[in-house]
Amino acid sequence: MTLAGVQEKLPVFVDEGGAISIQVDGTPSTHILKPDTKRLAGSVENEAFCLALARACGLETAEATIGVTGRRRYLRVKRYDRFTDPQGEIRRLHQEDLCQLTGHFPSQKYERSSTERGVTLKMMFDAISDLVSPAERLKLLDAVIFNVLICNSDPDAKNYSVLIGAAGSTKLAPLYDLMCAAVYRQVDQSLPQGIAGRVDASELRRADWLALAGEIGLSGASTVRRVEELTERVSAACEDAAPQIDGMAGDPARVLEKITHYIQKRCRRIRAQSRG
């Protein structure tokens, strides 16, 4: 496994017929395989569900399907940082995560992860505003809110990226590495970047969202309204996303019902607290 991250990942080349190969001699990979793991039962279904849920809520995400080989299940994620040129050759798009964009080491991807202060949300929003576009901050805000609602405790600075085109054009990359951590009690549930000083997402209140908006230069009223809108969308979309993922390759770990329960519970809580 050659890609960075907590989960095992393998870059592969998938041809038009669906055959999977290990690329050699500098051939660009087209997909990433993420196999299941005993430590995180149902991780494949979990991530597929959260990606589908984000798309159903209007957020741009990496495309993914579930595959099965022997007894192993895996998530097959299509690389969004690839394109095919007019000659039919697959080319790479340059990507930088928000650790790189803010000038931090990977060890500083969490705000409190090192002896020195790590990347904060303000740093991330400022980098997007200064180096990409002020308008892209709204996409990043949606991503931050969505990760809170799905109980994702690992949306660190390396899990947000920007794509840089050949002409220097930049935009926020589609979302990836989305997972509901609430179903894994052995996983730290704290936020990697605090919101108004809070690292327990379930305790976020209206005042905290207003404080975040003020810190990153966005409208407080619009931010709170967006929180309320996404709680409604996410909670409702869960009911359709679960059968969609179950239909891909089943749910042997029986994790989809648990994920839906935790996410809808979080949505109800955040919605109620955003109004108080």
Describe the structure.
- It is globular, with a radius of gyration of 19 Å.
- The chain has helices spanning 43-56, 98-101, 121-131, 136-149, 206-216, 220-249, 256-274; strands at 10-14, 20-21, 31-35, 64-69, 72-78, 82-84, 90-92, 94-97, 161-164, 170-172.
- α6 runs antiparallel to α7 (256-274).
- It contains 7 helices and 10 strands.
- It has one domain (10-274).
- The strands form 3 sheets. A 5-stranded antiparallel beta sheet has the order 2-1-3-5-4.
- It has 276 residues and is α+β, with helices and mostly antiparallel strands.
Write the layout of secondary structure elements.
Layout: E1 10-14, E2 20-21, E3 31-35, H1 43-56, E4 64-69, E5 72-78, E6 82-84, E7 90-92, E8 94-97, H2 98-101, H3 121-131, H4 136-149, E9 161-164, E10 170-172, H5 206-216, H6 220-249, H7 256-274
Antiparallel strand pairs: 1-2, 1-3, 3-5, 4-5, 6-7, 8-9, 9-10
